[in-house]
Amino acid sequence: MADLADMRHELMGRVQAVVTACCDYRSAFDHYSYLYGEDRREFFRQFLLYGHILTAAEIEAHAENGVPESPPTLQQFREQIDSYEKIYEEVNRIEPISIFQSWMKVDARPFKASLLNVIKWWSLVFKQHLMDHVMHSVTDAMFEPLKQTVELLKTYEQELPEEVYKQLEELPEKWNNIKKLAIAVKQHVAPLQANEMTVLRKSCSAFDVEQHRFRERFRKEAPFRFDTKKPYQLLDTKHIEIKQMESAMTSIYESAGLFEVMVPDYKQLKQRRKELCLLKELWDMISLVGACLDDWQTTKWVDINVENMDLECKKFAREIRNLDKEVRAWDAFSGLDSKVKNMLTALKAVAELQNPAIRERHWNQLMQVTGVRFVMDSDTTLADLLKLNLHNFEDEVRGIVDKAVPEMSMEKVLKELKMTWSTMEFQYEPHPRTNIPLLKSDEELIEILEDNQVQLQNLITSKYIAFFLEEVSIWQRKLSTMDSVISLWFEVQHTWSRLESIFIGSEDIRAQLPEDSKRFEGIDVDFKELAYEAQKTPNVVEATNKPGLSQQLEDIQSR
Q1: Euclidean distance between CA atoms 89 and 81, whole angstroms
Q2: ∠194-198-199 over CA atoms, to 5°?
Q3: What local confidence, expressed as pLDDT, does residue 267 receive?
């Protein structure tokens, strides 16, 4: 088994060595990869424009204005073709068969044939361009450079048709004759040309005047104002007018180029075209914002989602700020900007008014402040609220809400106070001898009474007491009366209980003190009447605040 393991290890080692050798062999051809990896058309395009392939540094250095063109010379063509011829010879010398480790054979013939074909294609691109140049430029270009190009092609065994060589011999003389004829024709048409140049210059001046007139009309008629009616119709009309003027300007430029006449830049017309595009962009934004805000108008008060609307408005505000700075001077921009800002402010006010502390009286106060009346109910919409022009009354809204919040706390205190005393009743116990209902002492009732009096005193000192002043004052009087009546009642009741056993329960004392006994009998009748009457009204507040009760108790106490 050990021998098999050694053999396996040796075999794997040899296989790995062959794999490494094959990989190295393959890597030896990597420097040819650009021949079949690069875009041949793009390479040749850059060569014709710049004489070489642009580097990243060159592109970055001329990022703003572009790399200046520098067409290749004939020598640069020669260098390129020679480089491919040299590569061709180098590849042609590659061994077609390679054997590694005496047992691994690699057949490179298919790869070699394909690579040689690719190299020939690269070389042919440059040669073909030179041949086309000779074929199509022979009547226009200089003859000596053409002859040099033909000689260069001959060195690469690229033959041209026989008529090309014949033309190269005959055309110089014909070319001279044509130039002489051109001079004669030029002299003949000179007066006509001068006249046409005069007409053209007048046309240039007239168009320059017209573009300035159009600028004034454009300023008056284009939809620069936010209250413009049918802005898109106006934009279409101005687009047609500018297009017609641009067509006339193009015609002038073409004629000027033909007669070599300098013409103005017509910046005013170009500026109007720019303004028209900016106006279109601005009105698209106005329409988008308007459609969105109009859609919100019908939202019912209970369904208004201030948070989502606020986010949408802030997004509009960012997009408005990103518009071209030139539009900021226009009334249409100012109107749009104000509309979105006012909506943002109004939404803040709406959020404030959604506070649960807001009551009908607060809406009435808001209507009084804004001077706008409407019915606040479940059918109230955002449009109704926006009629209040809330963006102009931000401080007033905040003041109403700031007052409503503590008022809600007061309302809660008064509501709890009402509930407490609406169920609070006196407890009675019978007098041992007479069964007269006597008021039973209730510490919890006294404690609640004292706490409520403190609460009412705190409310009365608040600066927001105005709306609840009357109600708080009434409760203060009720609780104060309750407090005094209960105290006085217990005093009278205690005195009556003590004297009743003396003057009613003891015949000896009645005999000894007949006058005092007679006077107490009157007190006894009055107190019993009050006691029975009080038992008929169990509620503490109602029982203690009966008209004249306090005075009756004081009279009994004073007797």
Answers
A1: 13
A2: 120
A3: 85
Q: Please choose, from the candidates 302, 340, 305, the residue with its C-alpha nearest in 3D space to the C-alpha of residue 321.
A: 340
Type of residue at 198: T
Eight-state DSSP code of residue 112: H
Residue 545's identity, in one-letter code, is N
Residue 185 clears pLDDT 80, i.e. is over it:
no
At residue 557, φ and ψ (nearest 5 deg) are: -65, -35
- Among 41-55, 79-93, 438-452, name the one with the lowest average pLDDT: 41-55
pLDDT tens readout for residues 412-455: 999 999 999 998 988 888 888 888 888 888 889 989 989 999 99
Nearest CA to 234 out of 217, 250, 246 is that of: 217
Q: What does the block give as tokens for 455?
A: 């609460």
Say how many residues make up the chain. 559
SS3 content of the chain, % helix, strand, coil (to 5): 75, 5, 20
Q: Who contacts 161 (Cβ-Cβ below 8 Å, separation ≥6)? A: none
Planar angle of CA 139, 143, 145, nearest 5 degrees: 125
pLDDT at 433: 81
Average of per-residue pLDDT values in the chain: 82
